[in-house]
Amino acid sequence: MQILPGPKVPxxxxxxxxxxxxxxxxRECAKNYGELFALKLQSNLPPILFVHSPEAMQQxxxxxxxxLEAPGDLNSIFEYLLGKNSVISLSGKNHQRQRQLIMPPFHxxxxxxxxxxxxxxxxxxxxxxxxxxxxxxxxxxxxxTLQIMMEAVFGIYEGxxxxxxxxxxxxxxxxxxxxxxxxxxxxxxLKDVIGISELWKQQIKKQEKADQLIYQEIQERRKNFDPQxxxxxxxxxxxxxxxxQPMNDEELRDELMTLLFAGHETTxxxxxxxFYWIHKLPEVREKLLAELDSLGxxxxxxxIFKLPYLTAVCNETLRIYPVAMLTFPRKVxxxxxxxxxxxxxxxxxxxxxxxxxxxEDIYPEPQKFNPERFIERQFSPYEFIPFGGGSRxxxxxxxxxxxxxxxLAKVLKTWSMQLVDTQEIQPQRRGLVTGPNGPINLVIExxxxxxxxxxEKATV
Length: 460
Fold this sequence. Notes:
Layout: H1 11-20, H2 22-33, E1 36-39, E2 48-51, H3 54-61, E3 68-69, H4 79-82, H5 92-102, H6 108-112, H7 115-127, E4 135-136, H8 137-154, H9 160-175, H10 179-186, H11 196-223, H12 232-238, H13 249-263, H14 265-280, H15 282-293, H16 301-305, H17 308-320, E5 330-332, E6 336-338, E7 341-343, E8 348-351, H18 353-357, H19 372-376, H20 397-414, E9 415-419, E10 427-430, E11 433-436, E12 441-447, H21 451-459
Parallel strand pairs: 2-8
Antiparallel strand pairs: 1-2, 3-5, 4-12, 5-8, 6-7, 9-12, 10-11
Helix pairs in contact: 1-2, 1-10, 7-8, 7-20, 8-13, 8-14, 9-11, 11-13, 13-14, 14-15, 14-17, 14-20
């Protein structure tokens, strides 16, 4: 049997490194072992292979249903949150069916209907922040994106039930992000430890309460179905597969939770990082404001979406500290050679998005925030992969990009803000994704006057 490169320390040590210092551990492994390395993250299972070169990424992500497959059972760690019917948890024809049912609501024309909603929620939320007092932009971004999820996806607005569900979802998301919660995935017996077991039970009870509210909403909507509504839940209820069959209640619940967890925490984190870099680097902020001000008072959302420098800033934000560190796993079906190693059937492979984005041969000075690199060069889908690739590529990527750009544009055009302090913020694990290792505190100084308005007043 071929011995693959990778750490030789006990699997428990590897798992602890992976849980508590994943990004530095990945960098160390890439430096020591090269383009492919194996980590043993579960004592009862074979090692998982990690790759990060664009060539390997293309081979792994574009090879579905040939030498490689993307079975949903490898994503079972998400089941406790998303359920067995989630598009993430399914395989083969079932996965293809769910993906086809979910895709229609995310077509461009339908998404543009949400632009006004995104800007309205952003304005209301920022207006609640006191002037000249520091606030954590990540908390505010989470509030904005959760409300967008509640209204655009669930179709739930104000009222007691909306408040209950919103609060429960906030608690579930926050608790699922702490390192001890991730430890359950690799050390399942921790759930039986006195003290920790009670925390686990509390988490399950909150999940059950949230599920009850979601099922109530689904049943109420079925009873009083209104095809004129534009929220994604209504569109999912209207979707039909090739046999003319709709989703059942359990499928709807699981896909709603999938969209929530895939689109709330991740987008909020990316927006927070963008605000950090924009306000940390004056030259980036000035160039971005000049581009936004050139659009006039009420720019069209489609025009904002296509702005080259705003797009470059968002792309560089998603590159330097990608929220998702890894692609979804693939499993070898028939023998295949990757990075000079012959891999046997059953081998599990993951692409490291983080390591690909940190490669100096693709991104010179990778630790430097430099939006211009996306102006100067077009990167391939296997060099820049913040949303994954292949059959498991993020369904909501266009919605997330639109949301990120519209929120940034609205805030930057309307309010003048400053970073409270300029200490370095680094990425760290937050549950199954990444986030800042400290608060990103901003302060609102005043409402902005675009340069064009200032010039007009000066002329008069």
